[in-house]
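Person: I keep going back and forth on a fold encoding question. Show me how you would write down a chain together with its backbone fold. Please set it down just below, with no commentary around it:
Helper:
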Amino acid sequence: MTEATGRDDVDFSYEKRVAGRLLAALEDGALSIPDTKPLYEEADPALVYLLIAWLRAHYPSSHPDSDGVLGRVVGLCQASPKVARHLRTGEKDAIVEWFEETYGYRDLDRHAFIECIVEKLES
């Protein structure tokens, strides 16, 4: 039983929704860059790195949506030096190392990716 929730079955559903929203903000353009910026600035650097690495893997220059998705990534990093620093810091995180040794970014679809990384980050 967890002290914070009083439950035995922690599923991190809130954290998964937050991570999914962060990913959707850049992948789908669900939020504007000004609305996305504070969310990414407050996020764990490892999560920031993993989300953006997943987007880069899923939207290579040959993908028809790459200009929009990667343009939003670039726009976010230009709008926020803190997010750019998160990327550099997150790249060195042990969770990122574990993920990259265990999976390829293209191995997991959006849902499976969020499930995997949130459970590892929160455990």
User: Anything to note?
Assistant: The radius of gyration is 15 Å. Residues 1-8 have pLDDT under 50 and may be disordered.
